[in-house]
Amino acid sequence: MLSDDDIKAIQSVCREKRYLAGEIVISEGSVGNNFYIIIKGGVEIWKHYGTPEQDLVAAYGRGQLFGEMALIDQYPRCATVVTHKPSDLLYITRDDFNRVIKASNPISLSIMRSISDKVRESNERYIEDLKARNHLLTLTCEQLHQEVEEREKAEKALLQANAKLEQRVTARTAESVESNSRLSQEIEDRKLLQRQLLRSDRLAATGQLAAFIAHEINSPLQAITTLLSTLMSEYQTDHELLSSFEIFKGAVHNIRNTVQKLLDLNRPSQEKKQPVNINKIIEKTMSLVKSQLKNAKIKLISDLSPNLPILIASPQQLTQCLLNLINNANESICGFSDATESKRPQIQADTTGTIGQITIRTLSDHGHIIIRVADNGPGIATEAMAHLFDPFFTNKKRMGIGVGLSVSFGIIEDHHGTIKAENSPQGGAVFIIKLPVRFNDE
Ligand SMILES: Nc1ncnc2c1ncn2[C@@H]1O[C@H](COP(=O)(O)OP(=O)(O)OP(=O)(O)O)[C@@H](O)[C@H]1O
Ligand SMILES: [Mg+2]
After folding, report:
1. What is the structure's pLDDT at 344?
2. How confident is the model at residue 399 (pLDDT cuts 50, 70, 90)?
3. Which residue out of 330, 342, 388 has the highest number of ligand 1 atoms within 8 Å of its CB and is therefore the one to mutate?
4. For ligand 1, what atom is nearest to the CA of residue 261?
5. Which of 133, 285, 287, 378 is 20 to 30 Å from the Cα of 36, by its Cα?
6. Domain containing 420 — which CATH number?
7. Does residue 296 belong to any structural domain of this protein?
8. Of 109-123, 328-342, 357-371, which has the strongest mean pLDDT?
9. What is the mean pLDDT of residues 159-186?
C-alpha cells in the first residue's frame, strides 16, 4: 500500500488530457515518453493501425493503465492506442516518474508490481489469443487440406470421365469406320450380285433364243448334210465338183460348230455332278489342247496344289469352261482380237521358240478351290472388262461369236462358284475361278 505522501507525490506529477473519439494517443513505432491512466472513456490497442492487416489487440476502459513500458524502456512502441470514445486520460512523463520513484521506494515497488502484473496479464492474454489463432489456423488448414483433397478427387474423377469419354469416342469412331467399310463392302457385294443376276437373266434369255435359233438351223442343216453326202458319193469321180463339195462341207461344219456353241449357251451339258479331283480334270484338259498349243508355239505350264479336297462337280462342264479359258488365252497371245492385233502387230518367238505361255494354278482357300488361268498376252482392254461375260460380246474380228465366257460363267454359276477376270501387274490376263467345296445342290 502507498502512503498518503506517496499518493500525493504521484498526484503532483500527474497531468490530465482530454481526447475526442478516434484520436491517436500513442503511435506504433514512436518512442513513448508517457504512462497513461484512463479516468473516463476508453481506448483500443491496434497492431498495424490504418493498414489492411490491422488487428485489434485489446480494449481498455476506465481505471486501466497503458504505456507503462515507456517508463522503463526507450524502445519504439509496439502498438497504436486510439480512443474509441471521448476520453479523459491522466499521464505521467518518464522524467517525472523517475523523479518520484527515486524519492520513494514503496512507489517504485508498487509501480514495478503493477507493471509486472500488467506484463503477466498481457502475456497471458497474448498466449490465449495465440492459442485461439493457432486453433483457428489449424481448423483453416484442415479445411483447406480437405478442400484440396476434394478438389484432387474431383480432378481425378474428371480425368477418368474424360478418359472414358475419349475411349467411347474412339470406340464409336472405330465402330462407325468399321460399319462404314462394312456398308460399302455390302454395297459393292450387292452391286456385284445385281450384275451377276442381270447377267444370269440375260444369259438365260439369250440361251433360250439361241437354242430356238439353233434348233431352226439344225433341221435344214441336217437335210443339207445328208444331201451333201449323197451328192459327194454320186459325183465322186468329178474331182472339181468334189473339191467344191469339200469347201461346202467345211462351211457346213463351221455352221454346225457355231450352232453347238449356241446350244451350249442354254445348257452346257446335262451331266450329273459327281466327286471329282480338280487337278485330274485340269491335266486331262491340258492333254486335249497340248498339241494345238505346241503348234501355236505356246507353252502350257501347270502349278497344281496337291491334296486338294474332292469337289462335287460336272467334269464335262468344268473341262469345257477350262477349254474356253485356254482357247481365249491362246487367241489373245496369237493376237486374234482387234485390240490385241493393233497392240501386237508382230508376234515373235523368243529364244526357246515360244511366243507366249499359259499357266494354270490350283490352290485351296478356306473351303474353296481356286483355279487361276493366266496368260502373258496383251491383257484385257479396259473398255471390255465390264462386258467380258455378256453373251455375244467379242473383240475378235475373225473367229469367235462371244459365247465362250458366257458359257463358262453359266457353268461356274451352276457350281455355286464365281469367276472374275483381271489384268496381272506383270502383263497378261488372269481368270480366277472360286468353287465352294461343299454346297447344297438340289
Ligand atoms: N485371255 C484373254 N486375254 C484378253 N482378252 C480376252 C481374254 N479372254 C477373253 N478376252 C476378251 O473377252 C472377249 C469375250 O470372250 P469370249 O470367250 O466370251 O468370246 P470370244 O472368245 O470372242 O468368242 P468365242 O469364245 O465365242 O469363240 C474376247 O473377245 C476378248 O476380247
Ligand atoms: Mg472365247
Report:
1. 47
2. low
3. 388
4. 26
5. 133
6. 3.30.565.10
7. yes
8. 357-371
9. 91
In a domain, 323, yes or no: yes
Q: If you measure from the C-alpha of residue 241 to the centroid of ligand 1, how many angstroms do you get, rounded to a whole number? A: 37
The domain of 81 spans 4-103
* Chain segment 54-106, per-residue pLDDT in tens: 989 889 999 888 888 887 777 888 899 999 999 999 999 988 888 888 887 78
- Cα of 396 vs centre of ligand 1, distance in Å, is 7
Q: Return the residue whose CA atom lies nearest to atom 25 of ligand 1.
A: 404
- Exposure b/e, 170-199, CB count within 10 A at least 16 = b: eeeeeeeeeeeeeeeeeeeeeeeeeebeeb
Q: Is residue 87 part of a domain?
A: yes
Cell of 32: 513513448
Tell me how far the alpha carbon of residue 407 lies from the centroid of ligand 1, in angstroms: 11
Amino acid letter, residue 234: E
- Domain membership flag for residue 218: no
Q: Hey, whose CA ends up nearest to atom 20 of ligand 1?
A: 402
Place of cell 485330274: 280
What number does the ligand 1 atom closest to the CA of 340 have?
Answer: 4
Q: Which of 59, 78, 103 is the last residue of a domain?
A: 103
Whether pLDDT at 340 is above 50: no
Picking from 266, 379, 389, 270, the residue whose alpha carbon sits closest to that of residue 332 is 379
C-alpha neighbours within 13 Å on the C-beta side of residue 149: 6
Total of domains in the chain: 2
Probe target for ligand 1 pocket from 265, 328, 397, with the most ligand atoms within 8 Å of CB: 328
CA 215 – CA 41 distance, rounded (Å): 140
| CATH number for 19 | 2.60.120.10
DSSP state of 199: H
pTM of the full structure: 0.55
Nearest atom in ligand 1 to 377's CA: 3
Q: Residue whose CA is closest, atom 8 of ligand 1?
A: 328
Tens digit of each residue's pLDDT (9 = 90 or more) over 299-320: 999 999 998 999 999 999 999 9
Q: Which of 103, 121, 147 lies at the terminal end of a domain, its last residue?
A: 103
- The answer to whether 383 and 338 are in contact (CB under 8 A) is no
